[in-house]
Each structure stands twice: as structure tokens, then as C-alpha cells.
Amino acid sequence: MDHFLYRDGVLHAEDVPLPEIAAQVGTPFYCYSVATLTRHFRLFQEALAGMDHLICYAVKANSNQAVLKLMGDLGAGVDVVSGGEYRRARAAGIPGERIVFSGVGKTREEMRLALEGGIRQFNVESEPEMAALNEVALGLGVVAPIAVRVNPDVDAQTHEKIATGKAENKFGIPIARARAVYAHAATLPGLRVVGIDVHIGSQLTALEPFEAAYAKVADLTRALRQDGHEIIRLDLGGGLGIPYERSNAAPPLPLEYGAMIRRVVGDLGCEIEIEPGRLIAGNAGILVAQAIYVKEGEGRNFLILDAAMNDLVRPAMYSAHHDIVPVIEPAPGAEQAPIDIVGPVCETGDTFAKSRMMPPVAPGDLVAFRSAGAYGAVMASEYNTRPLVPEVLVMGDHLAVIRDRPSFDEIINRDTIPEWL
Ligand SMILES: *Cc1c(COP(=O)(O)O)cnc(C)c1O
């Protein structure tokens, strides 16, 4: 359930009518709901209740500092994948001891930043990275807490671009080599092994791939303990999917996910970390756009919006589906007709939906893309010199612009023309 509902025929974000926001900030804009973000976070809290745990919200899903501040206030830790995200999390008030640093290509500069600023653990993804982190830590006279990200070679059964747990993916070290890698880590005085990390992909709609991966992690935990390592923490990654199409079967609930975690790794006495991003932010946000034209083509019609692939790239990049609904509720029984929903960018890829059944939409009407709170604004660009889309946060009847639309002056003045040209 989210908090974007029709009231008196008008789509609201919590208690705020969307046309009111459109009048204030213009279109397109992203809008997030505090109640929904909070609810989703608490679902994970409840799912892991009774187990020693920390929910490390995956910053990359939606990194606006207002969202991070909310998560931090709710008690979340965060998972960051770059020095930039680390800085954002700190700026939003997340303490270093609640920040987990993931990613295959951490630079020494990023390692230094996190070691100096405070860090819960580095999820190390290769032996060269382990060696670099050891050197950086020794140079600073500190010890870096690490988990090694293992690649369990399981099929996450998700879109190929967001599957990360197969042997052919770039992530983690092959689980078969894990004992050797941990043995090596134990010889490096700048590192302290605290646990094991795994993350097999995003938008998973079944529990079986998670369970297969976690069972391998449980076996590895026992083996590593026999080898003399102290494994006190298991980071089980993120990846639980959300229902993008309301007509489809719903993915497993956090409660079912938590029950499986308890069953598979609950007896190991480890602190559990999970790194959900999409499930917390995805359905807590929408993208609101305005119709510019309705164009009649050869055998098909096009609804041309003022939002484009640069604002929401998921349909172009992952062939992703977003439900798109009129902000003014269609009359009951309003006739639906198929239409291609597109943006103004000069690429055929700038197509949000093909032959989508829609009630009548006229130029000037507002539409909302549902499930756009994760991997939406964070992946936006200024392609075609279209300003980055602004973000709005709603709580009850409170409304705040949490990132402004940049002016054209700001955008144009970012370039420098060399004087010798
Ligand atoms: C992307 C990512 C996540 C979050 O995945 P979701 O599908 O958004 O839950 C968590 N951990 C790591 C290491 C990631 O790369």
C-alpha cells in the first residue's frame, strides 16, 4: 500500500492534491511520501524483529538527503557505493558506524575518506581491493573492518542488467575461493574480518534465489569459523522486488523474506544486515508529468508528455513497466484505448509505454508514473539540456521542495568556453 490515492476524484500525495504541487513547482516533478517510506522501513524492522539486525538502506535507490535523514531518524544504517554517496549520508546526519561501503571499484581516496570519517564495514569485492584497503588503513594507523562479498553463483531470475550473483557477473569473489581469500585477509594487519556479504541482484520476485544464496553463506560461515575466523555479521544485501504492475502477482512480502532469513541463518548467532533500496523507496514516489500533445500517427496514437527518458530512464534502460494514471480520476466506466506514451527527447528509446490502455488524456492534463521513487531521480540526466527534474517531499499536509529544478542559467554557465578558442 502507498499513500498516493484518489480523493474526491483527484490524485493526492498523502493529504496534498497533486495539481497543487504542479502549480507550485511546475512539471515534471518527483514526489515522495514520508508515510510510505516510513511504512516500508518498518516492514523490514518487523520482519527481522527479535534478531540482532541493522537495516542499511541502499542510498543509490534514492539519495536525496531528506530521504536519508528520514531513514537515519527511523534508525536505519545505509549502504553506499561511492565516496559521493558516503558524503551525502554524512551530510544527512548518518553516523559513520552505521555506514556500509559496497562497490567493486573503491578508490584509495574513497577508502581514506571513509576510514577518516568513520565506517561500519567495507564490503570488499576482490583481493586487489583487499590489498589496497590494507595499505590505506596501515598508512592511517587504523584497522578497517571488512566483510568479503561472495558471489554465490545463483540465478536471481531478474533482468540481466540488475542480476549480480552469477559467476559471470563482475561482483564479489567466487564463493569456492572464499576460504583462501579469508585466510589471506587474516594475514593483513590493516584489516579485521567481521563478516560475510552477499547481494545477488535487484527486483527479485521470488524467495528461492535468496534462499539458495543465504544457505551457501550459512555453510561458509561454519567453514570460516572452523578455520578460526570470527564471523559476527552477515550482510545479506538488498534486492527484494516491488509490484510495478498492479495486475501482476505480488512479490514476496518483507515478513516472508524475514521468516526465510530466520530459518536459513537465524541459528548462527550473527548480527544480520540487509540493504533494501527499491522496496523502501520505489512505491513511495511518483513522477508527475503534463501532456503536451496527442498526436495521431499511422495506425497508432502518441501521448507526448513533458517528462522524458532523461527524467525516468527505467523504461528505456530495462524495458521497465510503470503504471501511468491520470491525476484527475477518470469517470467510472470511461472508455480506454491503446496509446504510445512518449517523451520529447530525440530518440525512439524515449518511449515509456507502447499500446498502453489509457482513458482519454488531453493536452494540459497531468499524469502520474507510479513506483518511480527508486532508480528514478537518481538516474536522471540533463540530456537534451533538459533541467534535472525537481523533487518534492510530502508528509500529511506538509510539502517541501527537497531539490529545486536548476535554472537554465545554472546549466548553461556550467560549461566553460576556453579563451583560446
Ligand atoms: C543496488 C544494491 C542494493 C539495493 O538493491 P535494491 O534492489 O534496491 O534493494 C543493495 N546492496 C548493494 C550492494 C547494491 O548494489
From TrEMBL:
It catalyses: meso-2,6-diaminopimelate + H(+) = L-lysine + CO2. GO terms for molecular function: diaminopimelate decarboxylase activity; pyridoxal phosphate binding. Residues 35-281 form the Orn/DAP/Arg decarboxylase 2 N-terminal domain. The active site is at 346 (proton donor). One of its GO terms (biological process) is lysine biosynthetic process via diaminopimelate. The keyword Amino-acid biosynthesis applies. PROSITE patterns: ODR_DC_2_1, ODR_DC_2_2. The keyword Ion transport does not apply. Gene3D superfamilies: Alanine racemase, Lyase, Ornithine Decarboxylase, Chain A, domain 1. Coiled coil: none annotated. Its cofactor is pyridoxal 5'-phosphate. InterPro entries: Ala_racemase/Decarboxylase_C, DAP_deCOOHase_LysA, De-COase2_C, De-COase2_CS, De-COase2_N, De-COase2_pyr-phos_BS, Orn/DAP/Arg_de-COase, PLP-binding_barrel. The modification N6-(pyridoxal phosphate)lysine is found at residue 60. CDD domains: PLPDE_III_DapDC. It comes from the Bacteria. Its EC number is 4.1.1.20. It is an enzyme of class 4 (lyase). Substrate binds at residues 278, 314, 318, 347, 375. Belongs to the Orn/Lys/Arg decarboxylase class-II family. LysA subfamily. Specifically catalyzes the decarboxylation of meso-diaminopimelate (meso-DAP) to L-lysine. This is Diaminopimelate decarboxylase.
